Amino acid sequence: MSRRAVIVEREPAWGRTDSLYQPARPAFWFCIALFVLGTFVLFARISPALSFNVGAMSLTVVLWSAYALPFVLLIITLDLFEPEPPAFLASAFAWGAVVATSIAIVANSSTQSIMVKTLGSDFTRTWWPALSGPSTEEVLKGLGVVVAILVARKQVNTVLDGLVYGLFIGLGFQVAENLVYTADKIQSAVFSGTPGRVVLDVFILRGIALGLWSHAVYTAAVGFGIAYAWLRRDRSWFVRIGVLVALFAASWALHFLWNAPFWQPNSADGLEWTEVGTYIVKGLPALLLVGVLYWLAHRREVSWFCEVLDGRTDDVTAGELQALLTLRGRRAARVRARNVCGPTAGRAVRELQRSQVRLACALAQGTRDHDIEALRSSIRQARDHVRSECGQLQVLGEEPTHEPGRGEARHDRSRAATPRGMAG
Amino acid sequence: MALATVATVIVLFAAVLPLIDGLIDHPRRGVPAGTALEVRVPAERAIVSDAPGHRTVRFVPASGWSPVEEPDASTSSIELVQGGISFELSADHDVTGDCAGALDAREDDLRSLDGSGRRSEAQTFSTDNGQVGLAASFVGTRVEGLLVVVCERGAVATVVVSGPVGALQGDGAEPALDMARSIDIR
Question: For residue B27, how many C-alpha atoms fall within 13 Å in the half-sphere facing its CB?
Answer without folding.
Answer: 15
